[in-house]
Amino acid sequence: MTDLTLYNFRFVVGSQDLYGEETLRQVEKNAREIVSSLNESGLLPWKIQLPTVAIDSNAILDAMQEANNDKSCAGVIVWMHTFSPAKMWIAGLKALRLPLLHLHTQFNKEIPVNEIDMDYMNLHQSAHGDREFGYICSRLRLARKVVTGHYTDIAVLEEIALWMRASIGSAFSRELKCERFGDNMRQVAVTEGDKVEAQIKLGWEVNYLPVGELVTAINSLTEEEVDELIREYELLYTIDTTDTDAVRYQARIELAMKKLFEERSASAFSTNFEDLYGMEQLPGLAVQRMMEQGYGFAGEGDWKTACLQAVMKRMEFGLVQGSSFMEDYTYHMADNGLVLGAHMLEVDPSIAEIDGEKTISVEPLGIGNRKPPARMKFVSRTGDAICVSLVDLGDRLRMICADVEVVEPVADMPNLPVAQVMWRPLPDLKTSSEAWIYAGGAHHTVLSLSLTAEHMREFASINGIEFVHINANTDINAFRDSLIAADAVWRNR
Ligand code: MN
């Protein structure tokens, strides 16, 4: 899979030739200091390259085209130290194909009240230089992130980091390949979608892989290969079953899937319990293990959620990982309303309690008409989280993101044979669920304990996708009105 550590960002500083050599040298020196300060803050997950000071149209166009052609560059940060007439930026901005962050900062945090003179004023002009730049971005209808504040402020660094994560998610998205075993579950609507449009918008290459190839790969593994993986399971998990054959079969599925996906450079996949020809069990533990290792997954042929999970896992780079394929399963309508989320088997152990026990067991499954599958059970971490869904409205993709709080389950549920998560939707179950349903959100989501709605908003903005946010401030009638307004806007795009 793509090595995310190879990415970096570029920093282009706007100026012009009006000020003379000495001023431009000072601009360059200050810009270098800012980039060093950003890089040394320890708060940015990727490095920023040495800055380029651009003083005319050609230099700006060159800087943007170099960024486009640099495969390791995931985005461009722009700042106007001085005034930089924005007609000079038109060609460069029209050429730029990477995410853009407009950093509205200033070299000095405070005005040096005793020394300030007109030379100082002419050097430190971002207060109006960045307004000139902002106008041309708006005139060009450019999607971008604007961040205001001194470059040493923690809040500024955190916003840059957030945008970097969305940019890296977008870079990875352009290379994402998804393998599907089986088609969508029969008659299900929301897991469908226009794969061509998804590839145009997001870069996702979604391919079919016959389940027979998986069966062949499963059957061609040696017992020794399986033994080795079982030893890993024994180290990491509590094996709470005597049915070792069932666990070994899931280990075979995992090894076979990894082999097939590595051959195809795929990092997301889906299965369908209706299409298991030649398989002894529904993939359960195997899928959980694959998700734990960074693969995106969703059940029932749901390639959109599988790809979304793979992207979100990349956006979590360097954080404690915690994004799982999820399904709103059943409600606890008492206690102000909670959702119990799970799936048949495939809940991602990356959301488990840190150092919590993970148990492998084998239990019957009414769906799929196969032998009882091995699965991993665990208790999820608690804390602020988001549930994210991507739906195809026929004329566009819409991303729906709901803020939730993952809580301790109300009680042990000893008869429930799957990993599970309980959460409180914001502002409450009634408003959140009504808003979700009005927006057309799916029953499948990616639940993340590591990312926030703002990460997803930036990802949607970079990729030109509608973004809908359900949160603590959601008022259901205002929300309904906003969907009507959004429909008018997006339909005409
Ligand atoms: Mn499902």
Describe the overall structure.
The structure is a single chain. By secondary structure, the protein is an alpha/beta fold. The protein has 2 domains: 4-173, 3-Layer(aba) Sandwich (Rossmann fold); 177-491, no CATH class. It has 15 helices and 19 strands. It has helices at residues 21-40, 57-69, 90-95, 118-123, 126-139, 154-173, 195-202, 211-219, 223-236, 244-264, 285-292, 303-315, 429-439, 453-463, 476-491, and strands at 8-14, 52-54, 73-80, 100-104, 145-148, 177-180, 205-208, 238-239, 268-270, 296-298, 323-332, 338-342, 359-362, 374-377, 383-392, 397-407, 421-425, 444-448, 466-470. The strands form 4 sheets. The protein has a 6-stranded antiparallel beta barrel with strand order 11-12-17-16-15-18. The protein has a 5-stranded parallel β-sheet with strand order 2-1-3-4-5, with helices on both faces. A 4-stranded parallel β-sheet has the order 7-6-9-10, with helices on both faces. Strand 11 (323-332) and strand 12 (338-342) form a beta hairpin. Helix 6 (154-173) packs across helix 12, helix 6 crosses helix 14 and helix 8 (211-219) crosses helix 10. It is elongated. It starts with 7 loop residues before the first strand and ends with a helix. The mean pLDDT is 96. The structure holds manganese (II) ion.
Assign the structural class, choosing from mainly alpha, mainly beta, alpha/beta, alpha+beta, or little secondary structure.
alpha/beta
Approximately how much beta-strand content do the residues carry? Answer: 15-25%
Reading side by side through the largest sheet, how are the strands ordered? 11-12-17-16-15-18
Low-confidence stretches: none
- Give the N-terminus to C-terminus distance in angstroms: 34 Å
Ligand inventory: manganese (II) ion
Number of helices: 15
Global shape: elongated
Q: What integer value in Å does the Rg equal?
A: 25 Å
| Strand runs, count | 19
Quaternary arrangement of the chains shown? single chain
Helical residue percent band = 25-40%
Biggest sheet statistics: 6 strands, antiparallel, barrel
